[in-house]
Amino acid sequence: MIRSKELAGPPLLISAPHRRADRLTGALTLRLFNELGAAAAAWNSVHRRAGESNCEGTTDLARLRRNPFTAFSLAFAAAYPKGRVVQIHGFDPDRRVSTAGRNADLILSSGSETATPAVRAIARCVRDDLPDWQVAVFPNDVRELGARKNAQGRQLRATGFHGFVHVELAYHFRVQLMENEELRGRFGNCLEAGL
């Protein structure tokens, strides 16, 4: 989904590449897009594991280098070079190997070994405005779920775009964000932090 530049609010592309596998991420992305007036939103149309049983390879858009999802992200970055591409993912804290990962409600990364200004701004905002939720930043606080193989993050960085933010949300936090409009609004405002 794309809003015209005249109607768009913040220069955000909010996307959910695993909306069926990562429960509630598709619905949350749609609500954030609508409520923030974000410039664009995107979702996958096929389950991330659909290709594993039907054909060779994967249908995980966050892993595939060439697909419409990546092309859309690149086109957004070209239209909004100072904007932000936010990918919403879901994780299970019980499956994390580190204490920091198990204790986190959300994990933020840039998809690289550096926490970019965009990642740091969002983390700072969430810590200040949502102090009841535990934020971990890769690689500073946690060494898991850093999205280093994320296809969109890699392609965007290769073009010189530094506004990619990978957001991992624990299921209990996704539920709260869906149920609590005020919490969702505060979280959505943090996605804009530093823009």
Structural domain tally:
1
CATH topology: Aminopeptidase
> Nearest-angstrom radius of gyration?
15 Å
Largest sheet: 6 strands, mixed
Structure annotation, total helices: 8
Enumerate the spans where pLDDT stays under 50 for 5 or more consecutive residues.
Answer: 47-53
- How many strands? 6
Output the CATH class name: Alpha Beta
The share of residues in extended strands comes to: 15-25%
Identify the CATH architecture. Answer: 3-Layer(aba) Sandwich
What would you say this structure looks like, in words?
The protein is an alpha/beta fold and 195 residues long. The chain has a single domain (12-191), classed as Zn-dependent exopeptidases (Aminopeptidase). It is built from eight helices and six strands. The protein has helices at 25-36, 50-54, 68-79, 99-103, 117-129, 151-158, 171-179, 181-191; strands at 12-16, 40-43, 84-91, 106-109, 135-137, 164-170. A six-stranded mixed β-sheet has the order 2-1-3-6-4-5, sandwiched between helices. α3 packs parallel to α6, α5 runs antiparallel to α8 and α7 (171-179) packs across α8. It starts with 11 loop residues before the first strand and ends with a helix. The model is unreliable at 47-53 (pLDDT under 50).
